[in-house]
Amino acid sequence: MREAGKSNRYNIRVVDRAISVLNVLADGKPRTLTELSKEIEINSSTTFRLLATLLSHNLVQQEDSTGQYRLGLACLELARAYNTGDEIRRAALPVLEALRNVTKETVHLAVLDELEIIYLEKLEGLHAIGLMSSRVGRRAPAYCTGIGKVLLAQIDSDLVASQLKNITLKQYTDTTIVDEGELLAHLVLVRNRGYALDLGEHENDVRCVAAPVFDQTGKTVAAISVSGPKDRIDPTESNHLLIEQTTEAARTISGQLGYQNTITSSREDQNAEDH
Question: Domains in the chain, please, with CATH?
Fold first, then answer.
């Protein structure tokens, strides 16, 4: 990992300058345009344009009475998002390591961002063959991944339906669900089961089991999955044990985050058709 703050040839000057403004304001002391201009050693007109851009994104705010600038609410939201994601990852990592060791397959931790998932963690299986495109920090569509489906299933169906109208459901493989009505019905099944299966819906030769993670308020904050090639993960034969292992790991992580209730038994409808 490149050292933070270290200059390189890819730096964008205007972004560096905007970050300089945020770094100065990070001490909590409001400043005028003139004060900021002097501290970051940039002329007032350029500083004003930087502030106008940061204001438009709510990264800074201007006090009506004094005209001084301070950090905006968007900075707080970013800090909260970082702290939440890091807390979840720290709570999940030992459980994910144990799950990877017992299943010998690749395990993931991800969160939902509208209709995409973002991978927070990935531990390669003990006999991984580099089959999956998932990477930490990478995004993937939620509607055709196990983790994504189990996260979408926890959201109100009307909200999911309204979001789906803004995208085209791409047919990644023969098993990708691209009909909106069929997908919404499938998500109800996932919610009732308490887990999701991915039968090669995003990557043809990959199968996975996923389960949701809850925080102390009962909110779904993430999901985990166990993934592997189709010749090792067979939903009609070997998934019974894998489902139990995955949902139990999700329950353990949820408990560490303060969740008290139990996730829907994974034995329910375990032999029901996934689509």
Answer: 13-71 (1.10.10.10), 77-256 (3.30.450.40)
Which CA distances in Å does 42 have to 49, 53, 57, 61, 214?
A: 11, 16, 21, 20, 47
**Model confidence over 152-188: pLDDT tens digits?**
999 999 999 999 998 999 999 999 999 999 999 999 9
pLDDT tens for 213-237 read 999 899 999 999 999 888 888 765 5
Average pLDDT, the chain: 86
Contact 223, 110 (CB under 8 A): yes
Smallest CA-to-CA distance from 227 within 248, 251, 252, 202 is with 202
User: ∠ at Cα 269 (263, 272), nearest 5°?
Assistant: 140
State the Cα torsion 100-104-109-112 to the nearest 10°: -150
Instruction: Give the Cα separation of 259 and 159 in Å (integer).
Output: 24
Tokens encoding 214: 């809850």
Whole-structure pTM value:
0.68
Q: Supply 146's token pair.
A: 């196990």
What is the distance between the alpha carbons of residues 213 and 221, in angstroms, rounded to a whole number?
6
